[in-house]
Amino acid sequence: MIWEKIKQYRQKQKEKKAKAPKKTVWQEWRDTIVFAVVVATLIRWAAFEAFTIPTPSMEKSLLVGDFLFVSKLHYGPRTPKTPLQLPLTHQKIWGTELPSYSDIIQLPQWRLPGFTKVKNNDVVVFNYPIEKEYPSDLRTNYIKRCVGIPGDKLEVKDMQVFVNGKELSSPGLMQNRYYLITSQTLNDKFFEKYDITEAGPMPGGYWMMATPEIAKKLATMPFVQELVVEKRQRGESGPHNYPNNPLFTWNEDWFGPIYIPRAGDEIVLNDSNLAIYKTAILDYEDNEGIEEKDGKLYQNGALLSRYTFKQNYYFMMGDNRHNSFDSRFWGFVPEDHIVGKAFVIWMSLDPNKGLLSKIRFGRLLDLIE
Q1: Are residues 128 and 221 in the same domain?
Q2: Residue-number span of the structural domain to which 181 is assigned
Q3: What is residue 311's DSSP assignment?
Q4: Has residue 85 been placed in a domain?
Q5: Per residue in 103-129, pLDDT tens?
Q6: Of the ranges 170-174, 252-256, 307-311, which one carries the lowest mean pLDDT score?
Q7: Of 118, 140, 139, which Cα lies nearest the Cα of 72?
Q8: CATH code at 96?
Q9: Range 203-207 contact pairs with CB under 8 angstroms and sequence separation of 24 or more
Q10: Are strands 296-299 and 224-229 parallel, antiparallel or unpaired?
Q11: 124: closest CA among 346, 337, 277, 311?
Q12: Both 125 and 202 in a single domain?
């Protein structure tokens, strides 16, 4: 009896399907495109997103022209804060200056569980925190190495990073800026031979960005009269270094010590703490009624003497240490700005090579460390 009813039901479904009007080619294409866009949007939000290296701030670890996949699964995907957005866009509609989103609706944001946390020396993609013209989830994507995590005390001493008093292992392909004094003229082919992509003439020689290993090789050459690394002196204030306050004489090569806040940390708001942490308190913590007045913080008219952080923060630096605009200049990265972990290079194109030699085959499918 049951099997007979099932048979009748299937027959009716076949008849119903046969009577239904057949889809046109346009309808078939439309349904296929809609399905593909939905699937791609979900993958981009929850699993992986493509990213391109636009600047040399991570050379030689990552090169201009590297195409990466960024994993959202490692740290967990964020729920959308700006839901009214054209699929597969970021800030603008492709090829135009028109915004691809509306910020009329801004939702609370949470992070779904990932299978790991951000660790020291992870290569991380994040939204550039001080870019206020866009909602936080649509700010420009930056990529740097995380050198400090919540609860760390970080210090840069003579170009070397120390975390909680211990020397942090430097990236294997980290670069610095050098001055090369020579007795003869060098051409582009010379620098290309030693994989030096950033170099230029200066009085008596050349400046260049290079790894310490390459610099040692060049120093032994007979025509090299002097090779010195460019570095600032301790106590020499950098004009643009965070927190841009006369209380701190920090620069790129001598920075800190600085404490990186974690959620639940309470601090006393004295002059030095206020200089370091006020950007986070005012701009990243979604506080209401807090304002700065006469060098003090007030909430709803009442003076704040202490503050408890609502979220975790991170400190980012580029591997190209003397050519990287990073946390040494603009401060902490809030946890809600973390996009994902740089995972693998799926394509690499040399912007300085011709069509036939443009692909860097040796970098394809390299895992990022």
Answers
A1: no
A2: 176-229
A3: S
A4: yes
A5: 999 999 999 999 999 999 999 999 999
A6: 170-174
A7: 118
A8: 2.10.109.10
A9: 205/179, 205/180, 205/181, 206/179, 206/180, 206/182, 207/177, 207/178, 207/179, 207/180
A10: unpaired
A11: 337
A12: no
In a domain, 110, yes or no: yes
For 191, which DSSP code?
A: H
How many domains are contained in the chain? 3
Q: How far is CA 154 from CA 12, 163, 232, in A?
A: 71, 5, 18
Closest CA to 358 of 65, 6, 137, 44: 65
Q: Give the whole-angstrom CA distance, residue 40 versus residue 239.
A: 44
Mean pLDDT of 142-155: 98
Task: Give the pair of three-digit tokens for residue 367.
Answer: 């895992």
CATH number of the domain residue 182 falls in: 3.30.70
Q: How far apart are CA 232 and CA 250, in angstroms?
A: 10
Evaluate whether residue 270 is within a structural domain. no
The mean pLDDT value for 49-53 works out to 94
Chain-centre distance for alpha carbon 4: 62
What's the alpha-carbon Rg for the chain, to the nearest Å?
Answer: 26
Distance in angstroms (rounded) separating the CA atoms of residues 205 and 341? 40
Residue 148 and residue 52 share a domain: yes
Q: Tell me what pLDDT residue 129 has.
A: 97
Distance between CA atoms of residues 26 and 268, nearest Å:
65
- Tell me, yes or no, whether 127 lies in a domain: yes
Residues 122 and 56 in one domain: yes
Residues contacting residue 160 through CB under 8 Å, at least 6 positions apart: 167, 168, 170
